[in-house]
Structures are given as structure tokens and as C-alpha cells.
């Protein structure tokens, strides 16, 4: 193990600690790993889950949270004025905010600018969250800044403070600010973690421009149970006199955004559709697939152009004539001809785990971390469109497989119902664990739940699928060979449920076992040593394995959770773990 990797592993031994979290540990999937480490008496590792609970308790007074983050910033050696030097583009939204940030960063990098990019969550390694010029920071840079920040915060602890060390997301946010300043980036694209008004990134006082991507229901226990309430939270990033842009939203949340902006004299603009910018010029090619990415690209173009304009850059695109917007009295953002830099930036954008396709021999993996109703709807449209445009094999059956998991307070039944029209031959469920053993699995593992708990959730998903399957059942539902009729309930690596389930569904205890069964050794990259004993012992698994081995083409959609997609990518793309 290299010295840098040894230090990186050591860095993960110590996580942000808090006297308020005596019964919790720092969950690796949403934070740093929770391996045993020296602790102060009465202190334990703090999880992102405990941070969210803390936010819920304090959300009536957002100043409490923002002031706490400002204090952490000061203790780390920075002042709010220092963040003004980063020329920040601040982006929130429910779906597409990460893709919007990726488009924006790539466009501005195509102008020769040095970019910083802070995003969440990570897919494979925590370093992905902090990027310089599109690349995750190195293990050396990560460990150096981790220990520097950790020791600085330890040295400045105040015994009278209710929270002596920041939770995971706050810690990484502080790290990102320090790294961007040290690396002297020309700009930083900062993605909001959750919400906006109460998010710890909202200590940013003077961003250059703000953006709001498509809104929908997510994190309802924290942000509110209506899209209007969520819009109020998202609009919390608006700043007086700072231009802000949003895409077309339903009338209710759009009106909330308008009112939030007007209350603080924030100029808010509605983005015209991408078609308006393409008119009279060549069609724009996007590096990210899916029709829904056009809305994200339209927002990114406005954010990038506004940033360039505010910083007096030349070559920002020739304006076209346009009609004023009448949508909730919001002015329409400029309609302009995208420059060659903008076109190249959109074309060259990469954002793993979002509408990503990996073609491996007879297998095609479709990876999309959609986890809300609206994003799963977009995922289904993308997947079905991709299947319509595929090259059909000359002979032999095609098999469609769903690999799904859902976490948090999402409604898995609602998400699975949206996936039914894809007519999968097999629905496979597993937890967000690459392996059953935690060894080498720290960045994917959530230490706040047990294996039994996550497996029971997967079995619940299977029950939902079985019920939906029966409701939708018809003699011609499947048009390719499926599992043998009348087979036993399922491949269960947990106690059997009393209710029968569809013969087309399986539950595995980890991602690796699920991929081994789906790929049947036919993926040229994913070649595990040997399948675990009993993987094909169940009749459904055995008959399905025969179908998969003989199929001319296998189309696998992985969705429901970005963490699931991350675990799959870790196994299918080993280079991402280097």
C-alpha cells in the first residue's frame, strides 16, 4: 500500500466527533469510515443521519445552523470574506442539480478556466465529492487537508460549545472550501446538499450566480410534504442582487420561487428551453443521455453565460430576439447562440451514474441513480427510448433485468410501479453493499443499519413488485423466455416470507452476488473468482441462470438509489477505485 493510501486509510479512522452522538458512528456511505479509533471519553462517531436529525430539530431557526457552520469555518481558519474569492456558482434543486453542475463546470472549463466542483453523494470514493478541473482530488491532497482541518478543529474546541466537531457533510464542505482556495481555482461550482435555506453550503454570502433545477418531492421529512414547501427551502439560496435562474416548474412552486426572490430583491429569470437556443444553429449534442438532460443543459448554459458576463469575459454568445415571459411575471433569461466553447462543454460532459450506459459483450448496463417519482419517470423514458434505438441481435432472445434498491423515506411501491411498463423478465433486489463482508467496502457501507434491516427492506421491495406484477399480469406480458412457471417463491438469503412472491423476482444479500447471477460470467470486465456456494441452488435462480447464459442480449437497468449505482460501478469499473 502506498504511503498516500496508508494515510488516506488512517484519515478515515478518525471522523468528526460530537458529544451529542454518543450512540452513533460515522456512516461511511455518507461520511468517513467508522473503523475503531481512539476517542475522547463520551464521544462516538457522528453519522450523516444524526446530522439530519439535528437539522430537523433546529429547522425552525435556520440561523442557528448557519451560525454554527460559520463558527466551524472560523475555527478552521477561514472567514466568510474568504469564500467570496471563490466566484461561486451555487445550485440547488430536487432532480438534475448534479447534472446541471457537471454541465456548468465542463462548459467553463472549456474556456480554459480552472474549476472547483463540490458535489454529493460520491459513488465509489469520497474524493469524488471535491474535484479540480473535473478530476477527483488525489489521495495525497485529501489526506493532507483532512488532517490539517481535523487537527485545527480539535485544537479550537470549546468545552462550552454544544457541538464541538462538525458532522460529516459540514466537514467535507469545509475541506472543499480550503482546497479550492489553496488550489486558486478561478471558480467553484457548489451543489447544495439537502434543501437550500438550512444547508451548510448556504453560508456562501456572495455567489456570482445561483440556479434551481427541477423541483419535486424528496427528503419530505426534512423539507416539507409539498412541492411548494420544498420550493421555499430551495429558494433559500437566493441572495440580494445576485442573478438566479430556474427551469420551468409547476405553477405553485414557481410562484414560491418568484416570491422568495422578490422578498430579497434577487433577480430571478426563467430559462428558455434548449430548442430556443438551438434555433438558427446546429443541434446541441449532450454528453449525458436522456431527454430530461436538455432542461439541465439549458440551465447550465444560462449559469455559465451569466458567470462569464459578470466576470467580463468575451465570447459569451450572440443574443437573439425573444419574447418576454408571462409565466408568473418572471422575466425570460437571454436567448443566445451557444459559443463553440459551450457546445464542446455540453458534448464532453461526463457524470457517472446518471443515464450512463456500459456495453460489455452481450450485456448492456443502464445506470441511473433516480430515486424520486419524477426522476424515475425520466429514467423510464430514457431506458425505453434506449431500447427502441438498440441494435437487435440476429438470433436468440433478449432479456431485461431490473436491479433495484431504495432507501430513506422514499416510497418504493410508487417507484416500482413506474418501472412496470419496462416489462422486465427479472426483478432483482439487493442492499447497497458491494460485498457481504465489510472488508474493502467501507465507502459503500452504512454503519447505522444492520444487514438484517437492509435485507428486510429488500424483501419488502420484492413483495411490492409481486403485488404489482399480479395486478399487471396478462398472458402476453413477457415477450421473451422467462423463468419456469410455478417455481418457488424467490431466492431469499433471509427468513422466508409467509406471502408468495413472483417467480420473476430475486433477493440477494449484496451487489456482488446480484451481479454474478445477472452476468453469468459473460461480462468481460466483471470476473469474480467463483460464485458463492448456493447461488444457483434455488430453482428460480437456476432456471433464470440458464436463460441468461443463452440470451443473445441482456439489458440491465440499475436504479432507485445513487448508492446502489455507486456499488455497481465499483465492481464494473475497477479503475474508479484506484
Structural class by secondary-structure content: alpha/beta
Helix share, percent: 25-40%
Number of helices: 19
Q: What's the rounded overall pLDDT mean? A: 82
Uncertain residue ranges: 3-49, 475-502
Q: Which strand order spans the largest sheet, edge to edge or round the barrel?
A: 6-5-4-7-3-8-9-10
What is the terminal separation in angstroms?
A: 12 Å
GO cellular component, one term: cytosol
EC number: 6.3.2.17
Binding site for ATP: 354, 368
Subcellular location: Cytoplasm; Mitochondrion inner membrane; Mitochondrion matrix
Short description:
Its EC number is 6.3.2.17. Helices cover 38% and strands 11% of the residues. It has 19 helices and 16 strands.
Q: What would the keywords be for this entry?
A:
eight-stranded mixed sheet, magnesium, alpha/beta, disordered N terminus, six-stranded mixed sheet, 578 residues, one-carbon metabolism, single chain, metal ion binding, ligase, phosphoprotein, 16 strands
Question: What this model shows, in words?
Answer:
- It is a single chain.
- Helix 15 links the parallel strand 13 and strand 14.
- It contains 19 helices and 16 strands.
- The protein has an 8-stranded mixed beta sheet, with helices on both faces. A 6-stranded mixed beta sheet has the order 11-12-16-13-14-15, sandwiched between helices. The protein has a two-stranded antiparallel sheet with strand order 1-2.
- The N terminus is likely disordered.
- With 578 residues, the chain is of the alpha/beta class.
Amino acid at each position: 500500500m502506498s504511503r498516500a493510501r496508508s494515510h488516506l486509510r488512517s484519515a478515515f479512522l478518525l471522523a468528526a466527533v460530537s458529544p451529542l452522538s454518543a450512540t452513533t458512528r460515522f456512516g461511511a456511505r455518507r461520511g468517513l469510515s467508522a473503523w475503531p479509533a481512539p476517542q475522547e471519553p463520551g464521544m462516538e462517531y457522528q453519522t450523516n443521519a444524526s446530522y439530519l436529525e439535528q437539522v430537523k430539530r433546529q429547522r425552525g431557526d435556520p440561523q442557528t445552523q448557519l451560525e454554527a457552520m460559520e463558527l466551524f469555518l472560523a475555527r478552521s481558519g477561514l472567514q466568510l470574506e474568504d469564500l467570496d474569492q471563490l466566484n461561486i456558482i451555487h445550485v440547488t434543486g430536487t432532480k438534475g442539480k448534479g447534472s446541471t453542475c457537471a454541465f456548468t463546470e465542463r462548459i467553463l472549463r472549456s474556456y480554459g478556466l480552472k474549476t472547483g466542483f463540490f458535489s454529493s453523494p460520491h459513488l465509489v470514493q469520497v474524493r469524488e465529492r471535491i474535484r479540480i478541473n473535473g478530476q477527483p482530488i488525489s489521495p495525497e491532497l485529501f489526506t493532507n487537508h483532512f488532517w490539517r482541518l481535523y487537527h485545527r478543529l480539535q485544537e479550537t474546541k470549546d468545552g462550552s460549545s454544544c457541538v464541538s466537531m462538525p458532522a460529516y457533510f459540514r466537514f467535507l464542505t469545509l475541506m472543499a472550501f480550503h482546497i479550492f482556495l489553496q488550489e486558486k481555482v478561478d471558480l467553484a461550482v457548489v451543489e447544495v446538499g439537502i434543501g437550500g435555506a438550512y444547508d451548510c453550503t448556504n453560508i456562501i454570502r456572495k455567489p456570482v450566480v445561483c440556479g434551481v433545477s427541477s423541483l419535486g418531492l424528496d427528503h419530505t421529512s426534512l423539507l416539507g410534504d409539498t412541492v411548494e414547501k420544498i420550493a421555499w427551502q430551495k429558494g433559500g439560496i437566493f441572495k440580494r442582487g445576485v442573478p438566479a435562474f430556474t427551469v420551468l416548474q409547476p405553477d405553485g412552486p414557481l410562484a414560491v420561487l418568484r416570491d422568495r426572490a422578490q422578498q430579497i430583491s434577487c433577480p430571478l429569470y426563467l430559462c428558455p428551453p434548449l430548442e430556443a437556443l438551438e434555433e438558427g444553429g446546429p443541434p446541441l449534442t449532450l454528453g449525458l443521455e436522456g431527454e430530461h438532460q436538455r432542461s439541465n443543459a439549458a440551465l447550465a448554459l444560462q449559469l455559465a453565460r451569466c458567470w462569464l458576463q459578470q466576470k467580463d469575459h468575451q465570447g459569451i454568445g450572440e443574443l437573439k430576439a425573444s419574447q418576454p415571459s408571462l409565466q408568473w411575471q418572471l422575466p425570460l433569461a437571454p436567448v443566445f447562440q451557444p459559443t463553440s466553447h459551450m457546445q464542446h462543454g455540453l458534448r464532453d460532459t461526463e457524470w457517472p451514474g446518471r443515464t450512463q450506459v456500459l456495453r460489455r459483450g452481450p450485456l448492456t448496463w443502464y445506470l441511473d441513480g433516480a430515486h424520486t417519482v419524477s426522476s424515475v419517470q425520466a429514467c423510464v423514458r430514457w431506458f425505453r427510448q434506449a431500447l427502441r434505438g438498440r441494435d437487435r441481435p440476429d438470433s436468440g432472445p433478449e432479456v431485461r433485468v431490473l436491479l433495484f434498491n431504495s432507501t430513506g423515506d422514499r416510497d418504493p411501491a410508487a417507484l416500482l410501479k413506474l418501472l412496470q411498463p419496462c416489462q422486465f423478465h427479472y426483478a432483482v433486489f439487493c442492499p447497497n453493499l458491494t460485498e457481504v463482508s465489510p472488508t474493502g467496502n467501507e465507502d459503500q457501507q452504512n454503519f447505522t443499519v444492520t444487514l438484517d434491516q437492509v435485507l428486510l427492506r429488500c424483501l419488502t421491495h420484492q413483495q411490492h413488485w409481486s403485488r404489482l406484477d399480479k395486478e399487471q399480469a396478462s398472458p402476453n406480458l413477457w415477450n421473451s423466455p422467462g423463468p419456469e412457471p410455478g417455481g418457488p417463491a424467490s431466492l431469499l438469503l433471509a427468513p422466508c416470507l409467509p406471502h408468495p412472491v413472483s417467480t420473476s423476482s430475486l433477493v440477494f444479500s449484496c451487489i456482488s452476488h446480484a451481479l454474478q447471477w445477472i452476468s453469468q460470467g459473460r461480462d468481460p470486465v466483471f470476473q469474480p473468482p467463483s460464485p458463492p456456494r448456493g447461488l444457483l441452488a434455488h430453482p428460480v435462480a437456476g432456471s433464470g441462470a440458464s436463460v441468461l447464459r443463452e440470451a443473445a442480449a441482456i439489458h440491465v437497468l440499475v436504479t432507485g438509489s445513487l448508492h446502489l449505482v455507486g456499488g455497481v460501478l465499483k465492481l464494473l469499473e475497477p479503475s474508479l477505485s484506484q
